[in-house]
Amino acid sequence: NHETAFDISVAPVPGMGMLCCFVDVTELELVGQQRRDFVANVSHELRTPLTALLGFIETLQGPAKHDPVARERFLGIMEREAGRMARLVRDLLSLSRVESEERRRPSGRVDLGGLVRMTIATLKPVATDAAVTIELIGANVPTPVPGDSDQLTQVFHNLIENAIKYGGSGKQVTVSIRALDDAPGLRGRAVEVSVQDRGDGIEAVHLPRLTERFYRVDTHRSREKGGTGLGLAIVKHIINRHRGRLRIESEIGKGSIFSVVLPVE
Ligand code: ADP
């Protein structure tokens, strides 16, 4: 989908004319462009809360200096904006770590059922706040897979947290675990963990781009819910490291299912 880029050098060859050398630098150009886009995105994401913080500091030093009600309100907003910056830095560090480890095979072994159960327990307060109930199916299936326990916890944390955030208040989230004898694209036995919500769903055009860094279907909604736009990018890199697959299915008005398939061997 991209134009081909060449580096061209021309040199005279005595007695023979000219030598013209073409080097295909398309890949290099693309990587450079992606890096520039990423830096621009990060700067933009950091500048938004920073500008708000600076504005409120100025107001607190000036017009609102002796207004205790305004002070209280502005400090609340500043805390939220600082929290947004902290989450962004946390996710950027996570992303950088998982990217650099992507080529190294994980050496541990993980019981996925136990790990998913623990992750749900950790997210219980978030679910309760959103009036969401989480149903777990198949947690007793024996599911040892090779993997990095912290990273796989992060995968299911991000997917279940998204299902709570975007699934809608009062709705149910279902997490199902099942053993597969054979999975498309993977050799041998595998385990599938799927996270289903009953939210508004995602239009098909967005699905292939959801795991791109900073890609959001609705930026305002994501920000409002404390999102950084990096959660699914982190998920993708961790699953790649585990030689697994991520499948996303969604239907408008019905909800979405994010399924992770991990090889057992
Ligand atoms: P964010 O921090 O914005 O949630 P993610 O990388 O986790 O970032 O997700 C990217 C985008 O994908 C979100 O902004 C949201 O628009 C969409 N998305 C993710 N999970 C769901 C879901 N379960 N239902 C609807 N939309 C979702």
TrEMBL record:
GO MF, one example: phosphoprotein phosphatase activity
Alphabetically ordered keywords of this record: ATP-binding, Cell membrane, Kinase, Membrane, Nucleotide-binding, Phosphoprotein, Transferase, Two-component regulatory system
Major subcellular site: membrane
Cellular compartments annotated: Cell membrane
Keyword Nucleotide-binding among UniProt keywords: yes
The protein's enzyme class: transferase
Residue ranges of domain Histidine kinase in the record: 41-265
Record bears the keyword Nucleus: no
Reaction(s) the record says it catalyses: ATP + protein L-histidine = ADP + protein N-phospho-L-histidine
GO cellular component: plasma membrane
Superkingdom per UniProt: Bacteria
Enzyme Commission designation: 2.7.13.3
Any one GO biological process: cellular response to phosphate starvation
Protein name: histidine kinase
Organism: Gemmobacter aquaticus
